[in-house]
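Worked example

This section walks through a single chain of length 641. The input is the sequence exactly as stored; nothing has been trimmed or padded.
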Amino acid sequence: MDSFLKREGTPATLPLKPGTLLDYQGRTVKVIETISLERVMVNDESSGQIINAPIYQLKPLIVSDSSTATLTASSSRDYADYGDKEWTEINRRFDIIFPLLSAQSRTLDDVKAVSESSGFSVAMIYNMIKRFEATQSKTSLLPRKRGRRKGTRLLDAKVEAVIAEGIRLHYLTAQKKSVVRVADFIETRCRTLSIEPPSVGAVRKRINDLEPKKTKRARHSHSESKQEIDQVETGIPGAERPLDFIQIDHTQVNTIVVDEHDRMPLGRPWITLAIDVNTRCVLGIYLSLDSPSFVSVGSAISNMLLTKHDYLASLELSVEWPMYGAPRKIGADNGADFKSNYLTRSVEDYPFSIEWRPLGGTNFGGHIERLMSTFSLWVRELPGATFANPKERGDYDSESQAAMTLYELEQFIVRHICEKYHKTPHKGLRGATPYQEWERGILGSPGQPGVGMPSVYSDPNRVRIDFLPFFYRTITRSGITYKNIPYQDIELFGSERLARERKSEEERKSLFRIDPRDITRIWMWDPVLEGYHVIPCAVRDMPAISLSEFKAHERELKNRNEAHDAFSIARHAEDNYQLVEDAKEKTKQAKAKRKSTERRKYNAMKSVKPESSLPNEASPLQSTNGFVDVDIAAFEGAEEW
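Given that input, the structure is written out below as tokens.
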């Protein structure tokens, strides 16, 4: 993995419509047509060769033409910086062009009809479609004024970083400091760093560009701002085509999983699933021992957005799962894990919205709840199943019978989804399978055109980063610590600490992101370079375990009253792993020894003559005087040698 990840706007996407120019293995190709749900036919622009290309191997075409480049780059503004009026206009324009975006064939008459109903010219409609398809970012639809683009920053990047920190620490607080007070602080900080301070007007301009909702929440109490902030309307949208509406929910799996190394029971994991209401296909999944949170939801959403090739490869599975893509709407309940500010901010600039289940709306999540009920039946035959109630469980000891690791359980679930669930006739689909409905809805059928292949996100890592949890820490000489796990990059942290050493405690904090599935590295945000640095765990021998596994090892050491720092936990995890490996080797040796013993015993048994049926009678070959009495007559007539 690269040590630095540049973050510029929304991740680029690859439209797979005929005529699109893409990169395939270093060659410029043009999409001709869709062959299947996982492949497209492309034409090599240089050689004219026709290629049957897997969609996961297609990449965005790097062009030098400046006019094209402006279309392939999203706005440099963060989506949290857009105001309410701007978002209203952005969403209005998106709703206008959405029917044209989702149509497999787009005619001039279709565009003219939208033009007449919306008041935009035909050229403007085409322009908005072109911008959105190139970026898959709704903010690209915002009208651009002539001259210098709004939001353009002319100040030095270091000055901008100081302004941003000053606003965050001194303006967006309940103290309600004035702009002048904030500007005074920024001026002092700049002079300390020997850089030219900005004017009060420059600071005021950046404060005015803040999102009103964000400002009100930060500077006013909940009761003060509640009346001023509009709440999201709820409703049940239609689902006439694939990706029109996705439902997401969690459930706890009725199976106990074991640790990968020592095979000790870890508990029941939670699963988050995303289902396409129209086709009943599963588009996203996330399995974890952690309770549901925005991490679960965000991970399921990123899994839904991306093609499944890399994910299936990580599970070592060779199954078909061609379902992916950005939906129009996502339906979710009102739990804190769904309605977190972090999740709302993460999905803001993606081309879909989240709709919350209305209070008392029992039918709103019916499809996902039925899927969860079906899912509970899949796992009841697995070792370690806990069943639905004590009566069903009977005398079955779930913990002692548990045998599957989290990884093995995920393999089982994904294989079941792809090979059985997607290919089993569904009553709600008039006897068709979810796979058939997805294929029909995407590629079309006689008399019924499909919606076309969803655009592919060209940078999967960037999509995953957008949905990772974040935290703030102050960099010290020993690095930083997150949940008892130390992270260190001596060179990078050293320069960063020196740049912030004269600041207050709050001002010295930096932004980090962590993937809870692998604690061996985190990402640190660099406000000057506008990208992420990858920071390794300070415990070099730390195995690639999840945060939940780390916590389980920590609890075990605590219960044994032993040291439970990160180094001890790493040793404990490795020792457990080595114990298992040694046990496996001893088991092999014991099996070989038992096999050898059994072989000798069997051979010995074969060489021993059967006992006499008359054990109390003297054998004809036995003598009480120590000599053997032999009946010579018995050998008469024997051949001599």
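What to look for: The first strand starts at residue 4 and ends at 6.
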